[in-house]
Structures are given as C-alpha cells and as structure tokens.
C-alpha cells in the first residue's frame, strides 16, 4: 500500500471532520503470494511516509499498520518471525529502484 492507493473519507457528512481510511485499492501488483508480504510492504511505506518521518513516528506508523492488519488477518508465528527481514528487503528494493530511476531520468 502507498499514498496513491489509500482511499480517505471524512468522518462527518458535511466534510468538516477529520479524515479516516475507508479503503485500499491495489490492482497493479495483484498476485497470489504470502499475506505477510502485503503487510511488510505496507509497513515499509508507512515508515517512509513523509509525515511519519517529519514527526518521527515512522515506527509507530508501521506498528499501527501491523495492529490493524493482524486484527483482521492474524499472522502466524513464522510470519511474525520473518517480518523484520521482509521489511528490510522491501526497503532495499525501494532504494535500489529509486536510485535506478533517478539515474535513468535525472
């Protein structure tokens, strides 16, 4: 998940209330795979979110994402064991692809 596929909604009908997440759409990377990959990617992007970084809440943002996911889709002990490694792998992938994109189109 990332900022481009999170659907936000106002809590009130008049639109003046605080925003809340009401849905997530991500058909671009649709595949059959392990669920733990979804949450590891979501947690990575939660940590990289500019607001989370500027307020120094990167880890708490990722933790909130994990709590919500785990509440609906409980992770197994083996998935939890590998979660940190999967997040690190996604961070490496994001940095590598970002550097490649910058080199291709400065």
UniProtKB/TrEMBL annotation:
Major site of localization recorded for this protein: cytoplasm
Protein name: Aminoglycoside phosphotransferase domain-containing protein
GO molecular function terms noted in the UniProt entry: amino acid kinase activity
Gene Ontology CC: cytoplasm
UniProt-listed SUPFAM superfamilies: Protein kinase-like (PK-like)
Family: Belongs to the aminoglycoside phosphotransferase family.
Sorted UniProt keywords: Cytoplasm, Kinase, Transferase
Top-level lineage group: Eukaryota
Subcellular location: Cytoplasm
InterPro entries found in the cross-reference section: Kinase-like_dom_sf (IPR011009), Pseudomonas-type_ThrB (IPR050249)
């Amino acid at each position: 998940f990332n900022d481009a596929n999170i659907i936000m909604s106002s809590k009130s009908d008049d639109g003046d209330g605080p925003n809340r997440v009401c849905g997530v759409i991500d058909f671009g990377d649709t595949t059959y795979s392990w669920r733990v990959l979804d949450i590891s990617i979501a947690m990575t992007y939660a940590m990289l979110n500019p607001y989370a970084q500027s307020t120094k809440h990167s880890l708490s943002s990722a933790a909130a994402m994990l709590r919500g996911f785990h509440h609906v889709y409980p992770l197994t002990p083996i998935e939890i064991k590998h979660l940190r490694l999967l997040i690190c792998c996604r961070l490496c992938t994001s940095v590598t692809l970002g550097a490649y994109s910058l080199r291709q189109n400065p």
